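Give me the 3D structure for Response regulator.
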Amino acid sequence: MAKKGKILAVDDTPASLKLLSNLLQEEGYEVRAAINGELALKSAISNPPELVLLDIRMPDMDGFEVCRRLKEHPKTRGAPVIFVTALSETEEKVQGFALGAVDFVTKPYQREELLARVQAHLEINRLRNHLEEMVEDRTSKLKESMLDFITAIAATVEMRDPYTAGHQRRAAGLAAAIAREMQLPEDQIEGIYLAGVVHDIGKIRVPAEILCKPGRLSATEYCLIKEHPEAGYEILKPINFPWPIPQIVLQHQERQNGSGYPQGLSETEILLEARILAVADVVEAMMSHRPYRPGRGVDAALEEITRNRGALYDPLAVDACLKLFRERDYQFPD
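Predicted structure for Response regulator (334 residues):
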């Protein structure tokens, strides 16, 4: 039977390492095990894995240092790192994500959850690598294939957060419709749509329990959420797209008056494509149900962009959006 992927498992507790290795091997993965950080680095550099499952609390060299060195080495920097650890404090998660980890699984873990996260991150990394190979050829056939792969990446991200399932696709469709109403060129509209389909891909690095939290977020948790544009940019920037998709993703939370994030850009410092996506993003988000509130409906969403036209949102994009809903009876697809 063909192996499903090469995984490096690292844990200083022999029993935990054996349990993890056996679980993955039973699912068809090729697993190499390392009992400490130094052995893990040697193994990874000599035979780079597709994914690393890494404990944090280890003697001599902890998991954070191992992750840092993996991300520095050209042979291993592309491998996703998932921390499997008893640590559950948000501050530790922030530190891990800052070092380049893509996810956390807290011990004691559920078998199904661990396997689902491993599969999701392997698929995203393979799809990204495949896109890097394909993007050199910019024919119309490639663009069609690129849409399929980007849609697959978006669906993989949304699997982790049922409340935003379909949000990226609906926001992308509205952004494209706004751009078309503004009479932008079709090629530019295509780039806006594709950026919209993956604009929240950076949320793959936000713990699922924060994305789905029904109550109010703490300041630290909100800071993690706010890192998703930069995380998405880092995921997409190695791909040589024929459109500025990584930059659009990076800027979609920027606002006209400079109050947005992550860079505090204002007005024309923000790409037009990102200004359009920002309007579509907030309208779709306000109309849809979230774990912390019910959907607010189309009237409230249009009131939000009308009230903040020119302050937070691009005036021309707002005008086009209002026209779509009020004159052209725009409807989100089912």
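The domain at 6-120 is CATH 3.40.50.2300 (Rossmann fold). Let me know if you want a second pass.
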